[in-house]
Amino acid sequence: MNLYYLGPKGTFSYLAAKQYSLEKEVIYSHCPQQNLYDVVKSVAENDDAIGIVPLENSIEGTINIIADSLIQQDVYAHGEIYVNIDFGLYANEGAQIEDITKVYSIAPAISQTIQYIHKHQFAYDYVDSTIQGLERISFTEAAIAPLGSGELYGFTPIDSHIQDYSLNITRFLVIKNHANFDKDGDNTILLISPKANKAGLLAKILNTFALFDINLSWIESRPMKQELGFYYFFVQTTTGKTKELDNVISILNNLNFKVKIIGVFNAYS
Amino acid sequence: MNLYYLGPKGTFSYLAAKQYSLEKEVIYSHCPQQNLYDVVKSVAENDDAIGIVPLENSIEGTINIIADSLIQQDVYAHGEIYVNIDFGLYANEGAQIEDITKVYSIAPAISQTIQYIHKHQFAYDYVDSTIQGLERISFTEAAIAPLGSGELYGFTPIDSHIQDYSLNITRFLVIKNHANFDKDGDNTILLISPKANKAGLLAKILNTFALFDINLSWIESRPMKQELGFYYFFVQTTTGKTKELDNVISILNNLNFKVKIIGVFNAYS
Amino acid sequence: MNLYYLGPKGTFSYLAAKQYSLEKEVIYSHCPQQNLYDVVKSVAENDDAIGIVPLENSIEGTINIIADSLIQQDVYAHGEIYVNIDFGLYANEGAQIEDITKVYSIAPAISQTIQYIHKHQFAYDYVDSTIQGLERISFTEAAIAPLGSGELYGFTPIDSHIQDYSLNITRFLVIKNHANFDKDGDNTILLISPKANKAGLLAKILNTFALFDINLSWIESRPMKQELGFYYFFVQTTTGKTKELDNVISILNNLNFKVKIIGVFNAYS
Amino acid sequence: MNLYYLGPKGTFSYLAAKQYSLEKEVIYSHCPQQNLYDVVKSVAENDDAIGIVPLENSIEGTINIIADSLIQQDVYAHGEIYVNIDFGLYANEGAQIEDITKVYSIAPAISQTIQYIHKHQFAYDYVDSTIQGLERISFTEAAIAPLGSGELYGFTPIDSHIQDYSLNITRFLVIKNHANFDKDGDNTILLISPKANKAGLLAKILNTFALFDINLSWIESRPMKQELGFYYFFVQTTTGKTKELDNVISILNNLNFKVKIIGVFNAYS
């Protein structure tokens, strides 16, 4: 079975994929991709593919490209993985922090170390992947990369745990191109699409869940890309596909929402 | 008075700033900045500064760096501006689309033309600004930039209206480092910060507004960066700072939320 | 067709029944009954019977015996009638108010003139019907009866409009022993019976109607007679049997309520 | 101290008053009154008076005259008492049920034994008090009275536990003409008066309590006696006068309700 993730070796996605393999005690063919779009597309197009994609980070919030992929592509969630996010500053051997004038990294890494970057008055530039950043290392240029990843390419961190917020966790989804709703699952992700725009839609959604005493652990909106102020809503319930959830879905249908079950699975623990 | 925005000339922020100047019939000293972080910081630190920052795009959703700035910096909203987003493909004179193999642009522009990019099988890379993209134009490389902006630098679009979604609008905020809540304002942006994490916080917030029949036009959550699943909430009401809104704020305080008024102003029309 | 009501001639029920006959332009066989229980029972047992029963008075509130009958008997509402309630003090010819020491009337009439009774320091006693009260008239004893009713038996009011609250209206229901839900009806009465007792049942009911934007003009609870604090709920909607109402009923069923449609009809105007 | 209740000896109110004296281990001067109106009025006018009044019966529901008294008179609840309601049929010695053709009792007692009365095809008539009923006992006429009460007057029940519903409980309030809100109380009765009539008032009230997670054990409406469909609301919370309750009251004030605290006390157990 093919395992797709945002590569190359050393990304947090790679670390999440490795963690997933270990838990499942299965050896997968690794298929690192150049961008998240390609990860989702590969999974959508291959029946024997598994994807590991970041849905939410405790600092950055929802990863929009993944949320939008769940809307646009025919993929389903089969589980979730939590990974601690720690960054290091990778440079040439012997380099001192004072020598560095510019850093390279992918956008989320820049964003999550921006205070560190500003404190050291580094210039910065975006690259598409961790390895591209490492490749740009020179005497005055460094790369910000997941702690532990630079070593895979022969670099040493000259500073570590440099993220702005010490507690930094990313929640990854395990996706496939077909649904398999776990009967014993204790978590459900739903995509709720209003058919018409009017005031109070989100309140109606939340009140419907409240009516059946179903708690929500994640609520996110994404633009419908038709007009400003018209949104899709994602919710994650702390309940599986129970009779109560079926009732909620049926009510939401009657309230003029389309509801797609993205996944029913056991919460990561 | 200094007008800060994400520069250089030709960005949508620049276009929004120009639109703002025209409406106010005031000539401002233009202070284009290299990134949004610097725009907000400059405004926060200067009493006679005005900033024009993108809050929400009809395709991309909320611009997280701006939402987070409203949380972290002491800036206030004094108005909003809507700008239509149209992209063009800028290249060397005489170039044909078939000649192009790679495009450069800033991340949001890449994101909003990604289907176009994939359709033409372009490689792509991120740059920090529109002008940086234009500077990389070569025989086989093009830049994606706001329609009308490339011309300022002597380039011609070889394709136009290339965004994936034809209807594409960005809502900008006008920010200053001090509050001046418009008594006749018909819109209020609030930042609502829970003091403790528990289930149903957003429902409580929405129900409090519903109690006083106040409609919300924008609801957004941003991570508190302390733990996964603990969020700040932004809401925008379609009402000014009325007695009812004061009541809502007082209730939210009693329900253990901190509430900051980000701005009271007239909705853009 | 037989028309049942609380008799004899001269009661407000009689006046309501007369009003109903006039509106329908039908001559019914009048079947006055001695008490409300017998009115409902007669209707329940006869297919060609119509009953006119008081559901709610603007001073007294809901008439419990009728609400309980709607729960216990198989009767349905086919319409409603509003009657102004005015009372007179009927006595022997030539009597002065100062001569009177005691008054007789039915319980609701006593209740609605109690301040008048106390002001004149009358003793009072209950009778089963208006006519029983009139029969007890003596030199020092008077009867409180609907204005206009005593004349039918040869008495004259020595005081009139003596009810404590000048604006006094009773809403009567038209009942039959079979349902005929008016397709064009704009009002629905529902009886909602919880299958289990727990906190917040009424809030759940009201929120379900609110979800579908259905307004309620009447909400009443009646004890289930099994334990203290366990109630049936009546609601009257300002909507007919629409798709939305069907949805509400289906949700209430799923929330473990039994729902009986008591009637769909046009509101009295 | 004077203890007021609906007399004479033998009524359930008397039994409740006796129960109250025993619990308090205080000997009160008994002041039985002829009707409930006089009980409340006596308490309202005397600073050293205590009243014991029935608020709610598990079969009959709320006792309207008491609910209305709490609205109209300046009395406050200081506690509650629960009394089991059992009725007996009192007749002349040696009488058989078959001999009886008519029964006398107060209206609530008739109501709560109406099926028994109908089963035996008794005629019935209302009296103002238990003792009045007992006084009418003749060879063919009997009295329905609280079990144990007739014996006080020398009568024997020829049938017992004759109420229609075997589980029959009345909740009495202990009232005084001044408030003394028990700091350790775990129950609060509130009277909530809308200042203007519009749709959804009760939902707003219930949602306000829900916002602060306060449960309600009793919800009752009583007509405002101004127009049909305009109600006072009583609620009883399962919480004392906490900070949360103060918040709820303040919100209800802002939502244009007047709120009077009728009492804070410990629930009867």
From TrEMBL, chains A, B, C, D:
Segments forming domain ACT: 190-264
Chemical reaction(s) catalysed: prephenate + H(+) = 3-phenylpyruvate + CO2 + H2O
Gene Ontology MF terms in the entry: prephenate dehydratase activity
SUPFAM superfamilies: ACT-like (SSF55021), Periplasmic binding protein-like II (SSF53850)
Entry's Gene Ontology cellular component terms: cytoplasm
Keyword Nucleus tagged: no
Domain Prephenate dehydratase: 2-177
Protein name in the entry: Prephenate dehydratase
EC number: 4.2.1.51
Class of this enzyme: lyase
Lineage: Bacteria, Bacillati, Bacillota, Bacilli, Bacillales
Organism of derivation: Staphylococcus devriesei
GO biological process: L-phenylalanine biosynthetic process
Keywords: Amino-acid biosynthesis, Aromatic amino acid biosynthesis, Lyase, Phenylalanine biosynthesis
CDD domains assigned: ACT_CM-PDT
UniProt KW Cytoplasm keyword: no
PROSITE patterns from the UniProt entry: ACT (PS51671), PREPHENATE_DEHYDR_3 (PS51171)
Residues annotated as signal peptide: none
Pathway terms, separated by semicolons: Amino-acid biosynthesis; L-phenylalanine biosynthesis; phenylpyruvate from prephenate: step 1/1
